[in-house]
From TrEMBL, chain A:
Record-linked CDD domains: TM_PBP1_transp_AraH_like (cd06579)
UniProt-recorded name of the protein: Branched-chain amino acid ABC transporter permease
PANTHER family per the UniProt record, alphabetical: ABC TRANSPORTER PERMEASE PROTEIN YPHD-RELATED (PTHR32196:SF21), ABC TRANSPORTER PERMEASE PROTEIN YPHD-RELATED-RELATED (PTHR32196)
Membrane topology classification: Multi-pass membrane protein
Automatic annotation (TrEMBL), chain B:
Species the sequence originates in: Pseudomonas fragi
SUPFAM superfamilies reported in the protein's UniProt record: P-loop containing nucleoside triphosphate hydrolases
Chloroplast as UniProt keyword: no
Name used for this protein in its record: Sugar ABC transporter
Keywords, alphabetical: ATP-binding, Nucleotide-binding, Repeat, Transport
Pfam families linked to this entry: ABC_tran (PF00005)
């Protein structure tokens, strides 16, 4: 009697390995660069890595995580970052002080989010196309407003100096990441809205038939995503002391990469904030290390993109083997 | 003795700790129709997936025409002439009937597709096999589920199969189409094809099959000849307990009117619908595809907007603007498309059960996980949902248990009106009885229940009264205790019109208005 053979045993092992792969890969890459690039482990480099690169991408990617969890995507994160940054700088230069400039920047970001939400929830355009439209409009409006891309610098007397603030030995921007990640992460994982986002993102028709309002949920998601970007916009202009038109668009691809790495490597295959943060760290460490060993910006992009694809390819390959009934 | 056309021997298959198949045997003689029955979860689907090469068995052999196969995949199986007609296999909605029928086997001139020839040929084949007419270039998305099923069967026949496996083919078909299907299957057998027929409808099995294999809990419990074995005996073998009272119905005195429709109409779908639902009442609703019964049910859940007439809820004029609005007003729907609208297969039992009433578990925007777990466990125990725990994904549950989840999510909300759309389709006898019991209990607890079903004995068994729709109008109303399937069917098909006055108590007022 011949048996029909069994190959099902190997799968859990492979996927368990893969779940551990991202932290391991980060450790391996850190180890590699600390040998290959002297100065990588220096305090100065690490703090610049965290403060200049990690903070901004992390906050943007957290907003993106919600959009992806709800079954969509937000391509206009850059626009929200830029508009918040613009409002922040203009209000500061107008002499209104931080008390007005910060809420003003948040409102500007929220407006971008509301515009998306109006297209998605109101007109029923898919998130991909709606936010793509917002991205184009946002980019063009900025070019018009800034004479084709001229930065607006913050005047010397009103420099916000937010990035220099430390509290309990930790810089303010890091506290911000912690706060945003906690709020968005807890709501996504434990909140009522998080469950509703999960339902909409997994099976929108079921959500509708269960009496959930798809409109209200996508409204909240896209405004929340833009609000996170607005926080990033404030940190960005406080770091460079200027509004640089279209600078937010640089976060888009990396934010998407980070979210999907976190999603595909999680046990449940759901978008989640801790996974996103791990993905952001992964991307940042590579870019920083390559910079230190002398690769130029474009090669960094190639290497980062290649590594993201590699991680995702492994992850999807393992998923394909799971039972598909 | 010639080798059987298909012989599965000692097939075992485990999923984690669940033993889905345990030494199952299935022997199908050449040129016969072989029935395969069992409760959901008995292992029918798994066995078919092993046969199809989708799952690999842990042990056992498969032989086709006496030739033992090893290490086979779906392609090899199809090359050997075994073809499958699945309950839910999807055809792409944007294809025309011709494109869907000839998908992967397109008619061509060199590199060019002959689209028109395909559509013409498709129309001819469908007319020949099923006496069905489609407008030329009709899209799959425009067909109803019965027509899609027919398209699938026709598609399988094009491949000139040796063995055809029907996996619940009649679920979405009305009586006339089922009769046609059974006639076609008999015809195929007479041409020498070997048929494996899986169905929950034991009447079909009885009238169609030459042999029947009964599965229970992943084992072959019997191989019987349906001509010498009664349907009741087969049912007993399947569940290993007396089905006993198939339709547990307690007599409830109906209370006040909860929902009343006055002259309701929507487009061409239905018109002049007058009906009232009382507390504690189970009202049956039936009608053929296109009778408007489905649209009427959807209107009560805010999915279709009526254009004429009025809806009164607790005596107040109201309108269901959306499903959300309907849910807020105390309406619950257990929809027909269970895995699309009823449950989310990828989410856990808990996430499904609590989704319709999240506000009950919310404190300051956050969900109370302990409350959710307690409520889910309570519902799992109360409804007898067979699951490893509340964290199990619903896709691992059998159809009957998925349906209990789809119903269970409303139970915490204290809905006043329950709408059930084909509540027992695709679930086994044991689970059906449990669903019927639940329906009866809902009514006893004071809810009004409206059940849309094409299973007429079921409707007679569980309803207090039955409404029949025909061509968009209410054709008749019966007391469930004083009607049989034949009369209901006569009304639903319009057979009474002109020929047999008095057979169907037509409401004159409604027809006069048409």
């Amino acid at each position: 009697m011949t048996t029909l053979a069994a190959t099902a045993v190997s799968r859990p092992l492979l996927s368990r390995l893969l779940r551990g792969i991202l932290p391991l890969l980060i450790v391996a890459i850190v180890a590699f660069f600390s040998v290959a690039a002297p100065g990588f482990l220096s305090l100065g480099n690490l703090s610049s890595l965290v403060l200049n690169n990690f903070v901004l991408l992390a906050i943007v990617a957290i907003g993106m995580t919600w959009a992806v969890a709800a079954g969509g995507i937000d391509l206009s994160v850059g626009t929200a970052v830029d508009f918040a940054s613009l409002a922040f700088v203009v209000l500061l230069n107008g002499g209104y002080g931080l008390v007005v400039a910060i809420p003003g920047a948040l409102v500007a970001g929220a407006l971008v989010g509301s515009f998306n939400a109006g297209l998605i929830a109101g007109l029923g355009i898919t998130p991909f196309l709606a936010t793509l439209g917002t991205l184009f409009i946002g980019t063009s409006v900025q070019q018009l407003l800034s004479d084709g891309g001229q930065p607006i610098y913050i005047a010397q007397p009103v420099l916000p100096g937010l990035t220099a603030v430390t509290w309990l030995g930790m810089p303010l921007p890091l506290w911000l990441v912690l706060a945003v990640a906690t709020v968005y992460g807890v709501i996504l994982a434990r909140g009522r809205l998080g469950r509703e986002i999960l339902a909409v993102g997994t099976q929108v028709q079921l959500a509708r038939y269960s009496g959930l309002s798809i409109r209200q949920i996508s409204l909240k998601v896209f405004i929340a995503s833009a609000l996170a970007c607005a926080v990033a916009g404030i940190v960005l202009s406080s770091t460079v002391n200027a509004y640089v038109p279209m600078s937010g668009n640089a976060f888009l691809i990396n934010a998407i990469g980070a979210v999907f790495m976190g999603t595909t490597l999680s046990r449940t295959g759901r978008a989640n904030i801790p996974g996103t943060l791990l993905g952001v760290l992964f991307i940042n460490v590579i870019a920083n290390g390559l910079l230190l060993i002398g690769w130029n910006f474009y090669w960094q992009q190639v290497a980062t993109g290649g590594l993201i694809l590699l991680v995702l390819a492994f992850s999807f390959a393992s998923r394909r083997q799971s039972p598909s009934y | 003795m010639t080798a059987p056309a298909l012989h599965l021997q000692g097939i075992s298959k485990r999923f984690g700790v669940t033993r889905a198949l345990d030494e199952v045997d299935l022997r199908v003689e050449r040129g016969s129709i072989h029935g395969l029955v069992g409760e959901n979860g008995a292992g029918k689907s798994t066995l078919i997936k092993v046969l199809a090469g989708i799952h690999r068995a842990d042990s056992g052999t498969l032989a086709i025409d006496g030739q033992v196969l090893r290490g086979f995949g779906p392609r090899q199986i199809e090359a050997l002439g075994v073809h499958f007609i699945h309950q839910e296999r999807l055809l792409p909605g944007s294809f025309t009937v011709g494109e869907a029928l000839f998908f992967c086997h397109e008619l061509r001139y060199g590199p060019f597709l002959r689209r028109r020839a395909q559509d013409r040929e498709a129309a001819r084949l469908l007319r020949e096999y099923f006496a069905l007419e489609f407008p030329p270039g009709a899209l799959v998305s425009e067909l109803d589920s019965a027509q899609r099923q027919i398209l699938q069967i026709t598609r399988a026949l094009l491949a000139k199969p040796k063995i055809l496996v029907f996996d619940e083919p009649s679920v979405s078909l009305v009586k006339r189409e089922v009769d046609q299907l059974l006639a076609i299957i008999r015809g195929l057998r007479d041409q020498g094809l070997t048929i494996v027929y899986i169905s929950h409808y034991l009447q079909e099995i009885e009238s169609l099959c030459d042999r029947v294999t009964v599965l229970r809990n992943g084992r072959t419990v019997a191989v019987v000849d349906p001509r010498s074995t009664s349907t009741a005996q087969v049912a007993r073998l399947m569940v290993n307990r007396d089905v006993g009272e198939m339709y547990p119905k307690t007599v409830v005195t109906p209370g006040e009117v909860v929902l009343q429709l006055k002259g309701l109409g929507a487009g061409l779908a239905y018109r002049d619908i007058n009906l009232s639902l009382r507390r504690g009442e189970v009202v049956g609703l039936t009608g053929l595809v296109g009778s408007g019964a489905k649209e009427l049910l959807k209107s009560l859940f805010g999915l279709v907007q009526p254009e004429r007439g009025s809806v009164h809820l607790h005596g107040q004029v109201t309108r269901f603007k959306s499903p959300r609005d309907a849910v807020r007003k105390g309406i619950a729907l257990v929809p027909e498309e269970r895995r699309i609208h009823g449950v989310a297969p990828l989410l856990s039992v808990l996430e499904n059960l609590t989704l319709a009433g999240l506000s009950r578990f919310t404190r300051a925007c956050l969900l109370n996980a302990a409350d959710e777990a307690r409520e889910s466990d309570r519902l799992i125990a109360e409804l007898g949902i067979k699951t490893a725990g509340h964290d199990t994904a619903v896709r691992h549950l059998s159809g009957g248990n998925q349906q209990k989840v789809a119903l269970g999510k409303w139970l915490g909300r204290d809905c006043t009106v329950y709408l059930l759309d084909e509540p027992s389709v695709g679930i086994d006898i044991g689970a059906k009885v449990e669903i019927y019991r639940l329906i009866s209990r809902l009514a006893r607890q004071g809810a009004a229940v409206l059940v849309l079903s094409s299973d007429l004995p079921e409707l007679i068994g569980i309803s207090d009264r039955i409404l029949v729709m025909h061509r968009g109008a209410l054709a008749a109303e019966f007391d469930a205790g004083q009607v049989d399937s034949d009369r209901l069917l006569a009304c639903a098909t319009g057979a009474h019109e002109g020929t047999a006055p008095g057979l169907c108590p037509v409401r004159e007022t409604q027809h006069a208005l048409v």
